[in-house]
Design brief:
The structure is a homodimer.
Chain A (H helix, E strand, L loop, with lengths): L6 H8 L3 H9 L6 H14 L5 H8 L3 E8 L8 H14 L4 E8 L4 H14 L3 E4 L4 H14 L3 E4 L8 E6 L2 H15 L5 E7 L7 H15 L7 E7 L5 H14 L3 E6 L4 H8 L8 E5 L3 H8 L5 E4 L2 H16 L8 E3 L3 E3 L1 H8 L10
Parallel strand pairs in A: 1-2, 1-3, 3-4, 4-5, 5-11, 6-7, 6-8, 8-9, 9-10
Antiparallel strand pairs in A: 10-12
Chain B binds a DNA duplex through helix 2 and helix 4.
Chain lengths: 360, 360
DNA sequence: ATTTTTCTTGTGTGCGAACACACAAAAATA
DNA sequence: TATTTTTGTGTGTTCGCACACAAGAAAAAT
């Protein structure tokens, strides 16, 4: 290990025992002020940096991490955060990390609550969570606060003291970007539609933020005279209902020439219209799900914004490692890039490998 | 460390000593066929995975890594790979990695050769290099081959046996993407210009690849009737010469409405034209250098393609770690995403933090 | 002056794996 | 049969750090 400075070196230089150096470095036990001074001086002089490898080996402890995520069988998007998290886990399990995932049905708040209980039962040292249900997630956060469990959120941020870190996109800014991208394809005074295909949209602050971002983008170029409208629709999984909704919408609002689908379900719009006669509209959506990509390749979707779901899961666990192993503070908010995806660059976001990345 | 399986566990289960288990696992020394069988069986049964933490500590060796990069004082772009590499180094130095950077003048092949000698003198275990000068880089690669030094390339790939990994973009595809992006802003039968602002463009295969990509994009939509032309220009650093060149170019080729600057010097075009009268052209370039970003914000550059220079340096070192510490084979080619950057999403690519990433 | 308590310090062991060394038993040679 | 050599195996030390324990020195209490 060449010229690394070790605790022994410091002890020798300072004329004390390794034990004393250890006490100074960890502020543990009693050390005479004189010796403390001596040790700190030598530490400074030699530029000592603890060997994390040896340290983690000696600590010989386990960090129990619980993850509370939507079951990916209820929505394809959620495969990605889970797989990113598991990749990170493979990378750090040697550091004594133990990961236990808990999955809940994306559409069922009670399933969330039930799994939340299981999480608390498990008494983890840290929690990684996608706070899909606002109220329920806050309850869990408060419980975590009582138990002193730091929480890392992905996908959606919540303003709660116990949240150590949020990893995900800046919803507002993604709306702004979507505005810009729609603008590319729209002629001048036309109308853009914000389409929320979700349950309980009212609760979903991030959807509202996206809408606001898009509105603000068009408001920033008032001379062009664009308008914005919004529609919420929950029955996106019932093909015929969805089809009628879309056909009527396009008929009724003939000035709408651009649609911003505020989550990963842009493909639902096009699936519903498959085989139908309808006028051309520009569509901007989120996420590189296979059906979205298929429509992107057919140029039926103009742009997709990549939310880096895999990276979200990956970084979330890495931040926990960073906190417990490296003892370094995490940034409260970590925004991931808003990747603009077209056919020509889609491949790179799909096959991106996280395997080579490393906690510092 | 909870229920981790250790060598001791295996020894016990198999009824042999830890030393024998070690011999089996490393194929070192002699072991009776019977005991080898027993050990392997138990390893399989208990799902033993060596503890990399303990392993690296016990190995107690040093891996000397040399890096041969352009001096960032000769070109702003090259700050990024260097800083990415240093970030990775901070993350892995505890694993016994020793990094020694060698910098050369970007415009001087002799400087490259001189530093190449210094690298060989240093006798590293691995080399990280940006092969700016085709011929000279190949010479060095051959020397590395003799000494058995694996090489990781960034920025430009070379077909040489000794190259373990290339990390960078797919030049051809970035040209295709540039074609698509220019297309957004051009009316239909107009002309696109590929502008190479570099010395010895003839040698730079990646620039030719980019051009080909762009040509192929437009060739894929022949019905639109786009044309493509190319210009090389070396005196990009002499403002008045550059200005005259550009003014004449725009005057002479009035059908050129889109310019693809094939490297990070798009800003040179606009700096040269600053204060001049000239007709509007769409510009697509590379890299988030501050002057490029300034013109992007002014909408004088339509799109920038981000080459992820920092990530290149980061991953290059990480791949070396992966090879020496984790003993895992690296992909021969690792293409980084072609990020499409506009004002609205530029920030995220700038402040992206690599600090939390980890080798697995 | 002696005992007890407090403070301060050094020594020693373990984490899990890598590797050197020693030593038995088996095989090969004399 | 005596001896050397080979083969196979176990023990022990090391990496750098964390932490338990013991023990000496100083201070307080008796």
């Amino acid at each position: 290990m060449s010229n690394r400075v070790t605790i022994k070196d410091i002890a020798e230089q300072a004329g004390v025992s390794p034990g004393t150096v250890d006490r100074v470095l960890h502020n543990r036990g009693k050390v005479s002020p004189l010796n403390r001074q001596k040790v700190l001086k030598v530490v400074e002089e030699l530029g000592y940096e603890p060997n994390i490898i040896a340290s983690t080996l000696a600590y010989n402890r386990t960090v129990k991490v619980a993850a509370l995520l939507p079951d990916y069988r209820t929505d394809p998007y959620w495969e990605k955060p889970a797989s990113g998290m598991l990749k990170a886990y493979q990378a750090v399990k040697h550091f004594g990390i133990e990961l236990t995932p808990f999955y809940f049905n994306l559409f069922d708040p009670n399933a969330f609550l039930q799994q939340a209980h299981a999480v608390l039962q498990h008494a983890p040292d840290a929690l990684l969570m996608a706070p899909i249900f606002f109220k329920e997630a806050n309850l869990l956060l408060t419980e975590c606060q009582k138990m002193g469990i730091p929480v890392v959120l992905i996908n959606t941020d919540l303003a709660h003291e116990q949240v150590m870190t949020y990893i995900g996109q800046d919803s507002y800014q993604s709306g702004v970007l979507a505005g810009k991208l729609l603008h590319f394809g729209m002629k001048e005074p036309e109308k853009a539609l914000v389409l929320n295909l979700d349950n309980e949209t009212v609760n979903a602050k991030h959807l509202l933020d996206k809408e606001q971002g898009l509105r603000d983008y068009f408001a920033s170029i008032p001379e062009k005279g664009f308008q914005v409208m919004r529609q919420d629709f929950e029955a996106f999984d019932q093909a015929p209902v969805m089809r009628d909704f879309m056909l009527e919408l396009l008929e009724k609002h003939r000035d709408v020439t651009g649609i911003f689908v505020s989550n990963s379900r842009a493909y639902k719009v096009l699936q519903a219209l498959e085989g139908q006669e309808y006028r051309k509209v520009k569509i901007v959506g989120f996420d590189l799900l296979p059906p979205n990509l298929a429509y992107l390749n057919q140029e039926k979707i103009s742009f997709l914004i990549n939310q880096n779901p895999e990276q979200q899961g990956y970084l979330a666990l890495m931040n926990i490692v960073n906190h417990f192993i490296y003892k370094r503070p995490s940034e409260r908010i970590q925004h991931l890039p808003l990747d603009i995806v077209v056919t020509e660059n889609a491949g790179y976001y799909l096959q991106r490998n996280l395997e080579f990345q490393m906690v510092g």
